[in-house]
Design a protein that fits this description.
Length: 230
């Protein structure tokens, strides 16, 4: 039998978080301001969600739209505040002007996380060289997941890359979990599960009314059923 798939849902507030857990989410990605593709939520929002649900929470560390690190020292300070409030899993990822990983920025922020687990987010889908990025990050403490659609334009385009990367597990830079998200639809589940991929990330797909509305418990439950059926 296939390993139970992880379902991660984007949550903006307590209402989202409660609905996502009730629908069967295993983990939440906490963000604010989806108009900027998801920025770091406040400590107060994190604390409220942490008090409301008991599933894992990964908190975005990103202060501005785009994939540049921006003010790294401020990011480090924000990470420290979240750690002090009890956050123990994070999401981050920074590129330089040439599409390479901004390794100094990533290392500086990761150094403030005290070994916590973290996801390198969809910046990988904008990288000039995915393989090189993975190998540069391979030994950083706490990195256990890549959130990726396989391509900048989403899973429809990136599916062959995702399947190929899933087949490289065990090679240097390829031991991290592939968490698939970005234009993900229910019809993608079967080929991804057949390739051995067992982690899925949804945002708008968890909201019956789109980003204008809250997370729908029913929409999340539909995804839970689909993943459990494979």
């Amino acid at each position: 039998m296939s390993k139970r798939a992880v379902l991660e849902v984007i949550a903006l507030d307590v209402e989202d978080a409660v609905a996502a857990q009730a629908g069967g989410a295993d983990r939440l990605e906490l963000v604010t301001d989806m108009a900027a593709d998801g920025l770091t939520p406040s400590v107060a929002v994190f604390a409220g969600i942490r008090a409301a649900v008991d599933i894992d929470l990964r908190v975005m560390l990103r202060l501005t739209d785009g994939f540049a690190a921006g003010d790294v020292e401020r990011l480090v300070g924000v990470a420290a505040e979240l750690r002090a409030a009890g956050a123990d899993q994070f999401v981050l990822g920074f590129l330089d002007a040439h599409g390479g990983v901004d390794l100094p920025a990533v290392e500086r922020v990761v150094g403030a996380l005290d070994g916590c687990a973290w996801t390198f987010h969809r910046a990988i889908d904008r990288a000039a060289d995915r393989d090189a990025l993975r190998k540069q990050l391979a030994d950083l403490p706490g990195l256990d997941t890549y959130l990726t659609a396989g391509a900048a334009d989403g899973v429809d385009e990136g599916l062959p890359t995702l399947v190929a990367e899933a087949g490289r597990r065990g090679e240097p830079g390829y031991d991290q979990t592939l968490l698939v998200g970005g234009g993900l639809r229910l019809e993608h589940v079967r080929p991804l599960r057949s390739a051995g991929i067992d982690a899925f990330h949804i945002g708008g797909a968890a909201r019956s009314a789109g980003w204008a509305g809250a997370v729908s418990e029913g929409a999340v439950r539909e995804w839970r059923r689909a993943l459990d059926a494979e």
